[in-house]
Amino acid sequence: MSNKKTAIVCGAGGFIGGHLVTRLKREGYWVRGVDIKAHEYGNENADDFVVGDLRDFEVCKALFDRPIDEVYQLAADMGGAGYLFTGDNDAAVMHNSALINLNMLEISRLNDVKKIFYSSSACVYPEHNQMDPDNPKCSEDTVYPAAPDSEYGWEKLFSERLFLTYYKNYQMEVRIARFHNIFGPEGTWDGGKEKVPAAVCRKVASAEDGGEIEIWGDGKQTRSFLFVDECVEAVRRLMEGDFIGPVNIGSEEMLPINDLVDMVAKVAGKTIKIKHIPGPLGVRGRNSDNALFREKLGWAPSRPLVEGITTTYQWISEQVANAKEQEETTTEEMA
Q1: What does pLDDT average to over the chain?
Q2: Is 324 part of a structural domain of the chain?
Q3: Can you list the alpha helix ranges (DSSP code H) found in the chain?
Q4: Which residues are within 8 A (CB) of 39 and not within 5 positions of it... i.e. 6 or more apart?
Q5: Which DSSP symbol is given to 29?
Q6: Which residues, in sequence order, are bridge partners of residue 34?
Q7: Do 215 and 277 form a contact (C-beta atoms < 8 A)?
Q8: For residue 1, what pLDDT is reported?
Q9: Nearest-angstrom CA–CA distance, 200 and 99
Q10: 152 part of the active site
Q11: Which range marks the domain in which residue 144 is found?
């Protein structure tokens, strides 16, 4: 065995997990990725990649055929508002994600893993603190009394407490972060599970200059969005530090969804009209409060949103163009 640090990234076939694998490899880690599917966009930077179902305890056990220093537990059943906030997928979301967390935490304990990271979510925060789109309250100490707006949020809150009990009862070095709307290239951009920035980029890329796109609600609901590189940087700083969390990882640059559309349109060099339609919305306002991260780790994300949107739009517009070309080719072959 080499002296390299070893890590398992659960959810490595997904968006943030894939970027995290790349970062860990750049730092010199030996990395095993695991997911129920291979990475959709060809991120194959892991030293070993296991396609397996983490709901199966035997699959989890088989990952530990060597000493593992760190586990990054990002695997979950999740998606955008169209998947999480309709209520149609609540049982699957809660069952699948909770089972993955139970399995990976216990098997990590049994294998003396030095540190384990858990990706929670801003969805744990009480709905009543996020009704004012201009002044949402999302500091870490406002999470109780608990009142998340979705079952996804309730599962995340339960799992935070699960990880904290392993710290309390078994002295496991856990680290917990609450992600706030992470976006960037190599993420889901269509199909119903995509997040807002990806959906807006896809719609703008697909629209003609002067065209119209649909947005759920009045577009005055506010959010902040964090570029994936800064998310991964924050995760690594949390893992290297002594603070357990939970702590927010997000941007403090909040804006209405209508303004996000205008930003993407400007990046695309297009004039875009908005058609507001009914749809699942989530809370009226959400913004990351980074005071605790600054206090405990001496850093906070600061990259302007427009920079990340520019990079992401360029990537998604390429995916849209490739998909259109493939569709046209298939149509010609069938003719």
Answers
A1: 93
A2: no
A3: 15-26, 57-62, 81-84, 90-110, 151-170, 196-206, 228-240, 257-268, 291-297, 305-334
A4: 12, 13, 14, 18, 33, 49, 186
A5: -
A6: 10, 50
A7: yes
A8: 47
A9: 32
A10: yes
A11: 6-184+226-249
| Identity of residue 123 | C
Distance between CA 82 and CA 278 in Å, rounded?
Answer: 12
Domain-embedded: residue 310: no
Total number of domains in the chain: 1
Residue 241: name the closest of 166, 177, 171, 178 by CA: 177
Q: Which residue has the higher pLDDT, 206 or 88?
A: 206
pLDDT of residue 195: 87
HSE-up (13 A, CA, CB side) for residue 31: 24
Determine if the pTM surpasses 0.70.
yes
The model's pLDDT over 106-118, given as tens digits with 9 standing for 90+, comes to: 999 999 999 999 9
Sequence letter at residue 112: D
Q: Please check whether residue 12 is in contact with residue 39, taking contact to mean a CB–CB distance below 8 angstroms.
A: yes
pLDDT for position 2: 60
Residue 55: give its domain's CATH number. 3.40.50.720
Position 82 pLDDT exceeds 80? no
* DSSP letters for 174-238: EEEEEE--EE-SSS--SSS---HHHHHHHHHHHSPTT-EEEEETTS--EEE-EEHHHHHHHHHHH
The rounded distance, in Å, linking the Cα atoms of 211 and 126 is 37
Q: Is residue 174 part of a domain?
A: yes
Tokens 């893992």 found at: 239
Question: 152, 167, 170, 313: which one is catalytic?
Answer: 152
> Does any domain span residue 35?
yes
